Amino acid sequence: MTTATRKRAPFGVHSIDHFALDVPSLADARCFVTAFGFDVEASGQELRLRTQAGGHVWATLREGPRKRLAYLSLNCFADDFEPLRAQILDAGGHAATPPDGRSPDDGFWFEDTDGNLMQLQAGAKTTPGCKPAAQRAAGIRPQRGALFRGDAPVVHPARLSHVLMFTPDIGRAIAFYEQALGLSLSDGAAGIVAFLHARHGSDHHLVAFAQGSAKGWHHSAWDVPTVDDVGLGKMQMQRAGYVEGWGVGRHVLGSNYFQYVRDPWGSFWEYSADIDYVGAGAEWPGGDHPPEDSLYLWGPDVPDYFFENTEAA
Questions:
Q1: Is 109 a member of any domain?
Q2: Phi and psi, residue 292, nearest 5°
Q3: What pLDDT digit, counting tens, does each position of 3-51 carry?
Q4: CATH code: domain of residue 208
Q5: In a domain? residue 143
Q6: Got the DSSP string for 125-140?
Q7: Looking at the 3D structure of the chain, how many domains does it have?
Q8: pLDDT digits (tens, 9 = 90+) for 87-115
Q9: Residues near 214 by Cβ (< 8 Å), separated by ≥ 6?
């Protein structure tokens, strides 16, 4: 079963600031993320990904021998920083050395119970304060509800919604992220997957886990306004040569429309629209669900490679 721990932690993070991935080829990475719709800045030996020019840096890609999560950076309110640092250590986190190019004084660096490098810092909340109003797909009003294909726009992600990682012990991961970081279990499925949200207003999941044989990076999800953008994103990536993935479909847990696109290293980047939202302080009616509800309400069959952890080899 996938279950929450009983006692809620006193303090909690509010959002993801950014993540950093090591990838084998920055040239290949630049082609992929540019096609996905990011504004890409080359800075030294890394790529910085924004959803709009001059905006927030949501992800950093660095060249390394193989694809892996370099670190995940989480934001909290300034008054919660020191209590959260103590809470992380009390829950079994270990202080760690920051990666090259980052100062030891740049927040608090630690490892989670799977050995993933994490950063805690006081910073702005990057998630919405409420569920955005539903948007209707662009069309030619008032006669037509859809654009002509030649007028379809390039899809650009609006923001990072969530990340999902493989873990060798999903129960241990849930316990640590609840007790150390103050996240709450939204929903889970029979020890297969677990979805956790932040207490200060969050998408249905900010961080998620899939049970596997080893730790690893599965996907990042990027919010787009409508299901049309999800479908157009799929076409956009296929035309760029990135044909492997899964979608278009709709999830049960989280309710979002999705299209996953497989990158050159076997992980995924998701176009996501209309995900459920958990308001600040709200109680979510979650639970442990049967496996058939863990993935999708409708959509194509799940490809065999979807839960392949390419970092486990």
A1: yes
A2: -65, -20
A3: 655 578 999 999 999 999 999 999 999 999 999 999 999 988 999 999 9
A4: 3.10.180.10
A5: no
A6: --S-SSPPPP-PPP-B
A7: 1
A8: 999 999 999 999 987 777 889 999 999 99
A9: 166, 168, 309, 311, 312
